[in-house]
């Protein structure tokens, strides 16, 4: 599943599991790099969700204040 | 028929000793006179009730309240039996009757079609009966009451023209909710024309899809004035309405039957206004409070999630992704160092052994012999000249000395 279509919760859950795998070690360098890249993307996805939510909140708040 | 007509013609002439009237004519004349009085209402006290088994009529002697004068009533048995409260000797009643002459026995009585106990009154008694019946049919059943809409698109108001009730409902509703939309139908609120007018108004409002609640409003009045609001047809129409109905008829102590049938019974027209529209400012306040709580909740949620995300991102494997490589880099460096270390040792020993080999090589070379003054003579093809016979005159020979070489030509 591409990270764009993940919900916030899905992305965060996968991110946590990626981090755990990285911290446990045992993966090959190539695997570790792939995990890290995946983790970065997942973290970006989570952040995008949060930013989007904040933006919508601000918009709604601004509209409500009018 | 012919005989009757003759008698009527005969009646025009005054009777005389020569031409007296027969008894039947006299009796008929009396009957005609008595009949002219027509229907009357009369009040009196029951002196005696006579029920004859099997007879459809009950005979009641009705006595004047203040004079010793009586009149006989003939009352259909069912009226007597249905009377509520029951008719008793000595009770005061109001009757509706018409004088009747019984030719057979030459007696006079009031043929009664309505008899009611004074005090409660037949009307009130009838209301009680109707109330019992409607209650038994389930018209007052709380389970059948429909809830009022929270904010009706339009409110139907059926009330008297320019009445205080109309003003109370409209003003109070708009005070609470300025945008309240009303359709008002004015009707007579008492008297015989009230019920049909209210029925028409109800039907018209039922047909209006925008009207989501109907208010029946009327101020206080006498028991008689409020009677239309207990009418059976009206009660049934209200019960049959699909639109919820609020009744505000009379004062709190008045209990017209429509109050029981209506979905909501308001104590006054002002109360009815409060029931049909929400308080606008109150709703606004609640709404803004809900908004604030919504805001707080969302902010809290976002902040919490941001913290969780930040916490995950700050883990070394994500915060310093170089560490993934660094560990391996140092492994590589270490290996390289060790490899180089190992290699340099090997190289040193190789260099060492090389010089030994070189020394040994040098020891084995002819140089030492040359150093002692020997020379090596080679022919043009590089072969070493070992015997003079191998050389011919004119050959060019290469003479290798300890240091350098010379070329010589063979003379002989």
Describe this structure in words.
The complex is a heterodimer of chains A (66) and B (412). Chain A is rod-shaped, with a radius of gyration of 16 Å. In chain A, 20% of the residues are buried. The N and C termini of chain A lie far apart (41 Å). Chain A contains 2 helices and no strands. Chain B has 412 residues and is of the alpha/beta class. Chain B is 44% helix and 21% strand. A 5-stranded mixed barrel of chain B has the order 1-2-3-5-4. In chain B, strand 2 and strand 3 form a beta hairpin. The longest helix of chain B has 43 residues. At the A-B interface, helix 1 and helix 2 of A face helix 10, helix 11 and helix 12 of B.
Q: Keywords for this structure?
A:
heterodimer, A: 66 residues, mainly alpha, 2 helices, 82% helix, 0% strand, rod-shaped, B: 412 residues, alpha/beta, five-stranded mixed β-barrel, five-stranded parallel beta sheet, 13 helices, 21% strand
Q: How would you summarize the topology of this molecule?
A:
The complex is a heterodimer of chains A (66) and B (412).
Chain A: H1 8-24, H2 29-65
Helix pairs in contact in A: 1-2
Chain B: H1 2-12, H2 23-35, E1 40-51, E2 57-63, E3 70-76, H3 77-82, E4 92-102, E5 107-117, H4 121-137, E6 154-159, H5 164-176, E7 182-186, H6 194-206, E8 211-218, H7 232-240, E9 245-249, H8 257-261, E10 264-265, H9 269-276, H10 280-313, H11 316-319, H12 322-364, H13 367-371, E11 376-378, E12 396-400, E13 405-409
Parallel strand pairs in B: 3-5, 6-7, 6-8, 8-9, 9-10
Antiparallel strand pairs in B: 1-2, 1-4, 2-3, 4-5, 11-12, 12-13
């Amino acid at each position: 599943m591409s990270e764009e279509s993940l919900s916030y919760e899905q992305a965060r859950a996968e991110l946590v599991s990626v981090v755990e795998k990285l911290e446990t070690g045992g993966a090959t360098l190539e695997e570790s790099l792939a995990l890290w890249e995946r983790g970065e993307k997942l973290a970006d996805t989570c952040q995008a969700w949060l930013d989007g939510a904040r933006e919508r909140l601000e918009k709604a708040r601004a509209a409500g204040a009018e | 028929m012919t005989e009757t007509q003759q008698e009527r013609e005969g009646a025009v002439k005054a009777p005389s000793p020569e031409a007296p009237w027969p008894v039947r004519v006299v009796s008929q004349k009396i009957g005609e006179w008595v009949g002219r009085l027509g229907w009357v209402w009369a009040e009196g006290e029951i002196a005696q009730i006579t029920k004859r088994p099997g007879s459809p009529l009950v005979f009641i002697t009705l006595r004047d309240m203040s004079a010793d004068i009586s009149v006989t009533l003939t009352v259909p048995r069912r009226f007597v039996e249905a009377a509520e409260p029951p008719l008793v000797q000595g009770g005061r009643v109001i009757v509706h009757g018409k004088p009747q002459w019984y030719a057979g026995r030459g007696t006079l009585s009031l043929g009664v079609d309505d008899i009611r106990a004074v005090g409660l009154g037949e009307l009130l008694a009838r209301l009680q009966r109707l109330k019992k019946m409607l209650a038994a049919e389930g018209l007052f059943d709380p389970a059948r009451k429909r809830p009022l809409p929270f904010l009706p698109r339009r409110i139907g108001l059926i009330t008297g023209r320019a009445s205080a009730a109309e003003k109370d409902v409209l003003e109070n509703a708009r005070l609470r909710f300025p945008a309240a939309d009303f359709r008002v139908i004015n009707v007579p609120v008492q008297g015989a024309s009230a019920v049909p007018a209210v029925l028409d108004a109800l039907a018209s409002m039922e047909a209006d899809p925008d009207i989501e609640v109907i208010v029946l409003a009327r101020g206080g009045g006498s028991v008689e004035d409020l009677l239309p609001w207990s009418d059976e047809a009206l009660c049934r129409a209200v019960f049959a309405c699909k639109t919820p109905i609020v009744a505000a008829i009379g004062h709190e102590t008045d209990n017209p039957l429509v109050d029981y049938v209506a979905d909501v019974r308001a104590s006054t027209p002002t109360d009815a206004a409060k029931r049909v529209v929400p308080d606008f400012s109150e709703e606004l306040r609640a709404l803004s409070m809900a908004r604030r709580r919504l805001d707080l909740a969302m902010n809290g949620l976002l902040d919490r999630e941001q913290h969780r995300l930040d916490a995950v991102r700050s883990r070394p494997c994500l915060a310093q992704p170089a560490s993934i490589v660094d560990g391996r880099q140092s492994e590589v460096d270490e290996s390289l160092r060790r490899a180089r270390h190992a290699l340099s040792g090997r190289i040193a020993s190789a260099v060492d052994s090389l010089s030994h080999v070189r020394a040994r090589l040098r020891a084995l070379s002819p140089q030492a012999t040359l150093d002692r003054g020997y020379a090596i003579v080679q022919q043009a093809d590089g072969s070493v000249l070992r015997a003079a016979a191998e050389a011919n005159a004119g050959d060019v020979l290469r003479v290798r000395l300890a240091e350098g070489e010379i070329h010589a030509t063979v003379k002989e």
